[in-house]
Design brief:
This protein is of the alpha+beta class and 441 residues long. It has a six-stranded mixed beta sheet. Strands 1-8-6-3 form a four-stranded antiparallel beta sheet. Strands 5-4-2-7 form a four-stranded antiparallel beta sheet, with no helix packed on it. A hairpin with a 2-residue loop joins strand 21 and strand 22. Helix 3 runs parallel beside helix 4, helix 8 packs across helix 9 and helix 8 packs across helix 11.
Length: 441
């Protein structure tokens, strides 16, 4: 029987993507591991590998198509011994191997998580039981049935061995032939939830011909959705301190001056931001109660400081992660950050390189911004907003002088990092910034 090749879930939170282009055409033979297509997510372009061996009988979704839903059929594969022409006439069913792979990705626990993180998808619906026997069905069919309030036990399957597949559930929903499932979710929008102004209402406020419309891409839609989620669900609390940078700048100069040369270039070039990442990682190591994430049932206590670092890229923002930053030297952090930053701008990061993390750093000081507050990236509980270092008048021991100061604002999720705890971890961070040798010993 022909096999449906479906839109893969390239991350636990992916709901749709753009099928950028096919690297095969109808009639081509493919085998496990062959690269067959490129998929664009909101943040990166990923290659898709074939799972089974066969011939591409039909390409269902053309290259360049946007907004293709996860698990939607994008091509049909004729397996060995099948007539390619016959296979192209009708869809098949996902092969058990491919189905298992898709279900594993979709049902993976949400990592503690991505920059401005999206909601994790609901766990896969358990296989239903009818009369004490399991009703065999695909994961996609179970999800559609759950969303549509359909009892799978009342649906006749047309897949292999009577397996209920996507088209069976859709037919039951459109025909009203399946009774409502008691497990169907009941969702309602709170009456008090504000509704955004419609496109038409917004455009009426501006004279015709005075504007151009620029369609939102996937990245901008995701950023908007996650920011709304963050501000609606996280009770933000803010704390601000000024850190003296003079000692840190001096140490940075010594580190870079002592860098060994390779191919007539220094092996590393440490930035202030690299030292900020290290200081924040060390502070969270020293105050582990602040290195947490909130869930409705538990406090997630992280064992390492996985620091997401906001990087501006064309059209939006991405947050690559320095894993276990508290264990790494500043030169290692510098080189890793340089590599991640370059690949972020090229949209070549893998999902695991920007999804997850335990906290974030956003540095607008390099853009000349003195002070700002950052929005927490769910499910993080903290994010540091780094302002520009600048010379300011200071009073030390009753005498007026000049020092280089940097304003830093900590945003915390007040459900798990309250004011006193936030002040404690921010104070430790300042100690490392003002006494940076402590980060090196």
């Amino acid at each position: 029987m022909p096999i449906d090749i479906t839109m893969p879930a390239l991350s636990p939170t992916m709901e749709e993507g753009n099928l950028a282009k096919w690297l095969v055409k109808e009639g081509d033979k493919v085998g496990p591991g062959d690269i067959i297509a490129e998929i664009e997510t909101d943040k990166a372009t990923m290659e898709v590998e074939a799972v089974d061996e066969g011939v591409i009988a039909k390409i269902v979704i053309e290259g360049g198509t946007e907004g293709v839903k996860v698990n939607e059929v994008i091509a049909i594969l004729a397996v060995e011994g099948e007539d390619v022409g016959e296979a192209a006439k009708g869809g098949g069913s996902p092969a058990p191997k491919a189905e298992s792979k898709t279900e594993t990705v979709a049902d993976a626990p949400k990592a503690a998580d991505k920059p401005i993180a999206d909601k994790a998808p609901a766990p896969a619906t358990p296989a239903p039981v009818a009369g004490g026997e399991r009703v065999f069905s695909s994961p996609l069919a179970r999800r559609i049935a759950k969303d549509g309030g359909v009892d799978l036990a009342a649906v006749t399957g047309s897949g292999p061995h009577g397996r209920v597949i996507k088209r069976d559930v859709e037919a039951a929903i459109s025909g009203g032939t399946a009774k409502a499932s008691a497990a169907a979710p009941q969702t309602a929008t709170p009456a008090s939830a504000p509704k955004p102004m419609s496109d038409d209402a917004t455009l009426k406020l501006f004279p015709e011909g005075s504007y151009e419309l620029v369609k939102h891409d996937g990245m901008r839609k995701t950023i908007a959705r996650r920011l709304v989620e963050a501000k609606q669900t996280i009770p933000h609390f803010y704390a601000t301190v000024d850190c003296r940078l003079d000692a840190l700048l001096a140490l940075r100069g010594q580190i870079n001056a002592s860098a060994p040369r390779k191919d007539d270039r220094p092996a590393y070039k440490v930035s202030v931001n690299d030292l900020v990442i290290k200081a924040w990682a060390m502070a969270l190591r020293d105050v582990p109660m602040a290195n947490v994430s909130w869930t409705e049932e538990n406090m997630v206590q992280h064992k390492h400081s996985d620091i997401g670092v906001a990087v501006s890229i064309p059209g939006g923002l991405i947050t690559p992660i320095i894993r276990s930053a508290e264990t790494k030297s500043v030169s290692a952090i510098s080189n890793e950050m340089r590599d991640l930053g370059k690949r972020a701008k090229d949209r070549k990061l893998k999902p695991e390189e920007y999804q997850g993390g335990t906290t974030s750093v956003s540095n607008m000081g390099m853009m000349g911004i003195k002070h700002f507050t950052a929005v927490i990236n769910p499910p993080h509980a903290t994010i540091l907003a780094i302002g520009a270092g600048e010379e300011r008048p200071v009073v030390t021991g009753g005498e007026l002088g000049v020092a280089t100061l940097m304003t830093v604002t900590l945003s915390t999720d007040h459900r798990c990092v309250d004011g006193a705890l936030g002040a404690e971890v921010l104070g430790v961070f300042r100690q490392y910034i003002e006494n940076p040798m402590g980060m090196l010993v």
